[in-house]
Amino acid sequence: MHTTKLRKVGGSVMLSIPPALLDVLHLTENTQVGLAVDNGQLIVKPQTFPSYTLDELLAQCNSSDDFADEDMEWFGAQPVGKELL
């Protein structure tokens, strides 16, 4: 078991994770993690975010749905800058 100290950094308290644990968990600096308390223990889990292909995203769209009024206004708007048409 590794041990570490909580340290005050500015207005926050920092938990330093030893490099050996980072290697085992495949974590690096700036990895986003989630924190939870379970039965009095702090649980730190890497956050994963889904990655979608364009086809997967388009499959979720219903092309028969009506557009909102603000969308229709945007579709019919004239260019206001140097947009490529």
Automatic annotation (TrEMBL):
Domain SpoVT-AbrB: start-end pairs: 4-49
Keyword vocabulary terms for this entry: DNA-binding
Keyword Mitochondrion: no
Matches recorded under InterPro entries: SpoVT-AbrB_dom, SpoVT-AbrB_sf
Superkingdom as given in the UniProt entry: Bacteria
GO molecular function annotation: DNA binding
Cross-referenced SUPFAM superfamilies: AbrB/MazE/MraZ-like
The name this protein goes by in its record: Protein pemI
Name of encoding gene: pemI
